[in-house]
Amino acid sequence: MSCRHYLVSGQVQGVFFRATAQETANALGLCGWVRNTGDDRVELVACGSEASLGELERWLRRGP
């Protein structure tokens, strides 16, 4: 199992990005946490298989 840390910027607060990112990670079988930061970003830590982490990263780059 691997873990990765992400900081996502752009239009990510006030648009349910955090909740959708958590749902996406859960659907991929990942564990970890997601939170809004004080500087208008979303921070994530996700742990799981390399394949699932890769899928999450592609989703984060693409957005909901």
TrEMBL record:
The active site is at 18, 36. One of its GO terms (molecular function) is acylphosphatase activity. Residues 3-64 form the Acylphosphatase-like domain. The lineage of its organism: Bacteria, Pseudomonadati, Pseudomonadota, Candidatus Muproteobacteria. Pfam families: Acylphosphatase (PF00708). It comes from the Bacteria. Keywords: Hydrolase. Belongs to the acylphosphatase family. SUPFAM superfamilies: Acylphosphatase/BLUF domain-like. PANTHER family: ACYLPHOSPHATASE, ACYLPHOSPHATASE-RELATED. Gene3D superfamilies: 3.30.70.100. Its EC number is 3.6.1.7. It is an enzyme of class 3 (hydrolase). It catalyses: an acyl phosphate + H2O = a carboxylate + phosphate + H(+). This is acylphosphatase.
